[in-house]
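so ive been stuck on this for like two days lol. basically i have the seq below and the ligand is NAP, smiles is in there too. i just want the complex predicted, nothing fancy, no docking runs or whatever. if the output looks off dont worry ill sanity check it later, just need somthing to start from for the group meeting slides
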Amino acid sequence: MAEQDVPTLTDSDVAGLVVGVLGGTGDQGRGLARRLAAAGNPVIIGSRSAQRAVAAAAGLGGEPGIRGMANADAARAADVVIVAVPWEGHRELLAALAGPLAGKVVIDCVNPLGFDQRGAYPLPVPEGSAAEQAAAVLPDSVVVGAFHHVSAVLLLDPEVAAIDLDVVVLGDDRQATDLVQALAARIPGMRGVYAGRLRNCRQVEALTANLVSINRRYKAHAGLRITDI
Ligand SMILES: NC(=O)c1ccc[n+]([C@@H]2O[C@H](COP(=O)([O-])OP(=O)(O)OC[C@H]3O[C@@H](n4cnc5c(N)ncnc54)[C@H](OP(=O)(O)O)[C@@H]3O)[C@@H](O)[C@H]2O)c1
């Protein structure tokens, strides 16, 4: 790894960050919340309903340090915010939260996919990708794409101690991508790997359709490993 590519942030820089998760009542949000809380980060599950958020947090009762709030309150209270809502609600939710998310690093893991009888396929996105759409509607936030290929099933499985994959991290702000790489590395088995600017997020999101096909054929929860770094 070239010196300028080595993440400049260490684990201790991100260990105390409060992580908010929009749509944190779903499988992906609860899974990431559970793993990051287990790593020691305070986590806030967000929802369109504060009641559902509190219930989801209680449902992860094995992990202390998880609270539940309405999405807007979670966005306000968190240092870093993960977006884990379905593609269909992505633009509308983020546009409504532009104020509370201003000045924050927003991590987008949303995969715009369609499903038909032939399996999963990427949907066209006018902005190029979900992450670029987030950046367009959140002009005062720093958007980073990451966690697209992490299986919620593995994240939520108490029998799985370590999640064996690289998390590709994309963004236009190197300090923010370093931060997200360091955050990903807090989850045992994961490594955060810088993978380019936000304009290259489209194929990362679309690649999830290939992973869905792999998972169906091999009855697996496949992830990526990047070699030679
Ligand atoms: N599942 C995976 O393995 C996986 C892996 C990688 C990436 N992802 C990405 O992560 C995101 C979430 O996946 P998921 O499987 O957890 O989805 P999900 O369970 O369908 O949705 C997550 C949460 O989003 C909220 N939500 C639903 N519709 C919404 C809307 N129209 N507007 C705002 N909020 C809405 C709901 O929470 P409330 O009703 O409580 O608000 C729901 O619990 C997706 O974009 C997916 O592409 C998923």
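Residues 201-218 form the longest helix (18 residues). Residues 72 and 97 are 6 Å apart (CA to CA).
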